[in-house]
C-alpha cells in the first residue's frame, strides 16, 4: 500500500426499502419488500463490480438490515448489534471506532446513518440524494487512519455514492 492509498475504508449503507403491509409487526421486525430485495442484490453487485469488498460488516439486528445484508451476497458473516437499531450518530461512531476490519460495512437506519455520513466527510457528496439518504443509499469513504479508534468527524473523503434507483430503474 502506498502512502496515497486509503488506510481505512467505510461503506455506510442505509437498509433497503422495507414492507409496511403488516401493521401487526413491530418496526424492528419489518422485512424488506420486493423492491428492497431487488435493491439489496443490485447494491451487492455494485459493490463487487466497483471493488468495494468489506472484510467486516456491522449490522443492526433489525430484520430489514439483516435482510439487506443477506441480499448483498458477501462472503463474510455480519456482526449483528442491537445497539445499532435506530442509533444516533455518536453510537454509530462508537461502533465504528471499535471495528477491526480494513474495509468496514455498516448497515443501519435513518436519521442516524444520514447524519453520520454528513458528519464524517470533510466535504459533502455532490449528489442530490446525499442529504436525505434514501433507503439503500450507500456511501464509500476513505480515511487516512491506521486504526478505527482514530476515526473522527470531517476526516473522510467520499470515494463513491449510489442509490438503488440508479441501479434498478
TrEMBL record:
<dbReference type="Pfam" id="PF00300">
    <property type="entry name" value="His_Phos_1"/>
</dbReference>
<dbReference type="InterPro" id="IPR029033">
    <property type="entry name" value="His_PPase_superfam"/>
</dbReference>
<dbReference type="InterPro" id="IPR013078">
    <property type="entry name" value="His_Pase_superF_clade-1"/>
</dbReference>
<protein>
    <submittedName>
        <fullName>Phosphohistidine phosphatase</fullName>
    </submittedName>
</protein>
Amino acid at each position: 500500500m502506498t502512502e496515497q492509498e486509503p488506510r481505512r475504508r467505510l461503506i455506510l449503507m442505509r437498509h433497503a426499502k422495507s414492507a409496511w403491509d403488516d401493521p401487526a409487526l413491530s418496526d424492528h421486525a419489518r422485512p424488506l419488500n420486493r423492491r428492497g430485495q431487488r435493491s439489496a442484490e443490485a447494491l451487492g453487485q455494485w459493490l463487487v463490480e466497483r471493488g468495494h469488498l468489506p472484510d467486516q460488516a456491522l449490522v443492526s439486528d433489525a430484520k430489514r438490515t439483516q435482510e439487506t445484508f443477506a441480499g448483498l451476497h458477501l462472503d463474510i458473516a455480519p456482526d449483528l448489534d442491537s445497539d445499532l437499531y435506530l442509533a444516533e450518530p455518536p453510537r454509530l461512531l462508537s461502533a465504528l471506532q471499535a471495528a477491526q476490519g480494513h474495509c468496514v460495512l455498516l448497515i443501519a437506519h435513518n436519521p442516524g446513518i444520514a447524519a453520520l455520513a454528513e458528519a464524517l466527510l470533510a466535504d459533502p457528496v455532490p449528489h442530490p440524494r446525499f442529504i436525505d439518504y434514501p433507503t439503500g443509499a450507500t456511501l464509500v469513504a476513505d480515511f487516512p487512519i491506521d486504526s478505527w479508534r482514530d476515526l473522527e468527524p470531517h476526516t473522510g473523503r467520499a470515494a463513491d455514492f449510489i442509490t438503488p434507483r440508479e441501479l434498478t430503474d
